[in-house]
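name: query_chain
kind: protein
chains: 1
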Amino acid sequence: MQVSILDQAPILNNSTAKEALEQSIQLAVLAEKLGYTRYWIAEHHNLSGLACSAPEIMLPVIGAKTKSIRIGSGATLLPHYKPYKVAEMFNMLATLFPNRIDLGIGRAPGGDAQSSIALSGNYLENVKKMPKTVQELLHFLYNDYPKNELFSSISASPLPNIPPEPWILGTSIKSAFLAAENGISYAFGQFMSNEDGRQIIQTYKNQFQKKRKQQPKTIVTVSAICAETNEKAKQIAFSSFLWNLQHHKGKTLDFPLKEEAKQQLLNSDEFQQFQKNMIIGDPKFVVHRLYELENWYEADEMMIITITGSYEERTKSYQLIAEEINRKKS
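structure:
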């Protein structure tokens, strides 16, 4: 089983954005040492709990500190940008770090309405144009604009020997169709979707194979928290839940929590829903579930997102998972 990491660069309790970004760099270095296939970093805007608004700034730093792991955006939010500029940026990365660059493409705003207006004006109108802008982006990446078309005389320099690998990231049938119609790889965000992911991935594969001879490629991204014991993993998951309450919903909680308040939150419907799409447990349980999901989705690769109350717990979780996978392979 191939496993990878999706990083949202969370600003954890009592830390700063600078510390969060430095931790993301350290996580990518650790991921390479542990044998993860790829490391992607997400793009978010005007969200107080997340530090990375520009993956294209982080990736060259990470590339310079690693040697072989694939690195990329998870995702670059295309409605905010012109395809030509995105192609230039990722072609530069692919020139600097040959055969290592992934360009994840998303349609989400990645923030609130005000930040979307500041970035791109009419965001919703740009979303409607996604099929056209994805095609435009791919022409620039592959340097194959048909002759006599508007942009046929320009290239997104520098042109690398091996282009960035494009991926569509999504959680819906619409994104699956978009990936299949363009003949590119598809990453399904199971961790943030209540849709029938198996059907979505199967739709992608069926539509892809109708049009092309090559094989489709899929990633399923899941949320996982691993610790030495199941009980410890659940406690860490609770701290992750508290972090979400604070940073994503603007709620202020008094620390340390009184036992009565802690039990109320632990038994709340909100906490139960929070755990629903997560894998929480010791290494054997988490890796067993990853293999189950890989088989269920018939995915080529599993990608893991982990947010915990501390950086040490987060890196330990990734370490325990990698060690258990390696143990099973040996």
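note: The CA atoms of residues 79 and 128 lie 9 Å apart.
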